[in-house]
């Protein structure tokens, strides 16, 4: 009976996690999600020869979405459903890992924190590879603890072909598994074979990335800064939300950071393990990314979603070391932070994704002027690609035009597109800004 009740509690947690991940799942695709959709429409050969050499990610997620899209279509909900599934599986394996390292009570709390996590919910609703990468890293950590080396050897190259940054978990396995170094080394053989085969495409991607070095775009990729480092724990706790009042946001973030710092540093008796196991998972990939970002900017918090399970397991272990009212106060506070931050995202459109769908509806059949021949994927997905004109090819025939002001500072730093349109006799009549997607309407 006790086992049935415990199983039902886990199922309830997974069900709650699923419900939270289905709320607002039909919001507009943002630019990178639209890239996923357009890549999934490509012929298989074009994905490898035309798309991937200019992208910054391995192929597996795009191939998965191509297969998924051929079965279920490429609507917003369909595109995001695989990430929802991977998000639920991540919660399940967080439970298993916490139970193996600590106990059932800690496992329940860790799974509840993961189920209600604002950041995990957000990326469980995104048609990108980060939810899959977080699941695979969590699964690999479980297989590593269980010493299931055959399965470990299978899923390690799958992770490599899903997300490059997530491979920073590999040094963690070597730091912790040196006693089994022979089996661990053998388990890496499939990974090495895959990486050698993929190396030419990776070098092409790397070359393309370095081509924007020194530009404003380069700085947006995650260069080393105190802000980018500080955002990692803040976003782990609060997800994607922020407040207009930066003083309030800073104060709440600092108080919450102290709460979690206290929980993470509490010590619980472990079942044959050391706290170093979880701390290595949480810290080592981030420290390595700081070093890598000296040359290649990757220091952006969402890229470390695969470290978040360790964060919640450590916090849950700290919580269960507390007793009586203190335990309930800290547990309630942690869950309240998750629920509040998740609710702000799920129910307030202000905190949701760029609203390209509404922009497409507002533009209607009018011409769309772009300052550069890029950043068009979302409007292409919403069937406005045929209306887009690069400003250098625009001669001024239509009476009404919409000028894209989306990240124009990066792609048109001298504002040449706006200057040309206004020199052609167009007058601005409207400014449209929908969650960071800014367009100006002009009439001649």
Number of domains: 2
Q: How far is it from the N-terminal to the C-terminal residue, by CA?
A: 75 Å
The major β-sheet equals: 5 strands, mixed
Oligomerization category of the chains in this entry = single chain
- Spatial order of the strands forming the largest sheet: 2-1-3-5-4
Please give the radius of gyration in angstroms: 23 Å
Number of strand segments: 5
Helix-strand topology string = HHHHHHHHHHHHHHHHHHHEHEEHHEE
List the total number of helices: 22
Q: Strand share of the residues?
A: 5-15%
Helix content: 55-70%
Structural class: alpha/beta
Mean pLDDT: 93
- The stretches of 5 or more residues where confidence is low (pLDDT under 50) are none
| Shape field | globular
Protein model, in words:
- The chain is α/β, with parallel strands linked by helices and 444 residues long.
- It has 2 domains: 2-351, no CATH class; 356-443, no CATH class.
- It has helices at 2-22, 31-41, 44-51, 60-72, 76-101, 104-116, 118-124, 130-146, 149-160, 170-176, 181-187, 189-210, 216-220, 226-238, 246-265, 276-292, 308-319, 324-347, 356-363, 377-381, 408-411, 416-423, and strands at residues 367-370, 388-390, 400-404, 427-434, 437-443.
- A 5-stranded mixed sheet has the order 2-1-3-5-4, with helices on both faces.
- It starts with a helix and ends with a strand.
- The mean pLDDT is 93.
